[in-house]
Amino acid sequence: MKANIFQYISKLPNTTNYILLRLNKNPNFIYGNEYKNYKNILKKSFHEYDAIPLLLEKVNNAIEKIPYYKKRFSSLKRIQSIKDFEESMPFIDKDIVLNHYEEFINPEINPSDYDRGTTGGTSGKPLKLIMPKRRYIVEMATMHSLWSSIGYRFNPRAVIRNHKLDKKKYIINPITREFIFDGFNLNDEYFEIIYRTIKKFRIRFIHCYPSTAYEFSRFLYARKYDTSMISAFLSGSENIFEYQKALIQNKLGIRFYNWYGHSEKLILAGYCQTSDIYHIEPTYGYFELIDENGKVIREPGRFGEMVGTGFHNPAMCFIRYRTGDFAEYVGDYCPDCNRKVSLIRSISGRWSGNKLYNPDGTFITTTALNLHSDLYEVIEGIQYIQEKKGEVKILIIKSPLYGERQEKAFYQHFKTKFKPGMAIKIEYVTRLRKLENGKFVHIISTVKEPGAIE
Q1: Domain 1-31+152-264 is in which class?
Q2: Which of 71, 75, 106, 382 is the most exposed place for a label (fewest CB within 10 A)?
Q3: How many Cβ atoms sit within 10 Å of the Cβ of residue 303?
Q4: What's the CATH class of domain 50-135+276-349?
Q5: How would you classify residue 39: left for phi > 0, otherwise alpha for psi between -120 and 50, otherwise beta?
Q6: pLDDT (tens digit, 9 = 90+) per residue, 382-441?
Q7: Phi and psi dihedrals of 141, rounded to 5?
Q8: What was the pLDDT predicted at 2?
Q9: How is residue 402 annotated by DSSP?
Q10: Which residues are paired to 180 by β-bridges?
Q11: One fold for 1-31+152-264 and 352-445
Q12: What is the C-alpha to C-alpha distance for residues 370 and 442, in angstroms, rounded to an integer?
């Protein structure tokens, strides 16, 4: 599973790699017995899993061995219950880890068993992470388990994410059974190549960002192409908007399956097989949703910040780590799939990336800017650009229904949302902007937040 293996294989002709892909039908052979055993754990714990014993084990181990916790909490008795945990263990966040970085590293690990990486840095200075080299075992087993709820069985899948291809139209990874396309070359001409490849090889699943799923779906819908061979878009890493789901699920009839994860790898969640409610995977990490006072939310309908405690990284033990992501609590039991797990919806990405500043320095969030359904129906995409407090540029992709009356309605909508004096400019585009890594974000802002880390 090492990257250099794929680098070698990717140089082989696609015809050769396709033959290898056809031969590779058993993920247990590729990922090994640990993957197989973990899949069995996931299967057995599908309906209910008590994560509390593992949580207490990880917390007490951290207090005993991890310098940050050992220094501050060694006088504590063993944490023996969730009540002890919530009352005794404080929250941490990225700033705390950055300021005490070395103290979060387990001194007993063998460095050769771990890789070093960083978070994306979308909310300030990137955080350096130390991660197990064999993390793909838990990662892939859990992802494959999530995807299996909508029929994925280690099928070949198209991948349109953050790969840049020099000359090839696509490359095939026979190990992961992926047809990899260039995520930075998305235009109608290239979408035509992607579609013909998907149709030729009857690829049922497309792994991409939500914004890419939407752009590709717009192309398919406009051309009136047959999409019956496509079972689902497998998407993550971005927020999803109602106008995207309206096109993909309602008009094209393709399942828009989304999951939530983050670089620190503490929380992983995916849609239910029958709804758009996220189910937290309890074997992956311990999940909490907290209010503005740090109290755990257990009442449906309330919004809070997502907090995670990791189970699978002995090198860096993060306990009650505030992710900066927010969601609405739904409950702890899903009647549709009979799972007793934490349920959430309406996840909003890193809070610092979802603010627009008024002239006086106050801010408004994208949640508060949410459009009425009649406005969503006349556009095919929207994005906010802010380079200076008190000024905002709104990029809109117009639908055929959009006209002068709708433009006035948009200006009026935003005028009521921002404070007086806000300079609002609507600009019409055919494509929204993406970050260097190929991701779409609702707001692109260069305005520095108060107290932001340089």
Answers
A1: alpha beta
A2: 75
A3: 16
A4: alpha beta
A5: alpha
A6: 899 999 999 999 999 898 889 999 999 999 988 888 888 999 999 999 988 887 767 677
A7: -60, -45
A8: 47
A9: -
A10: 159, 171
A11: no
A12: 11
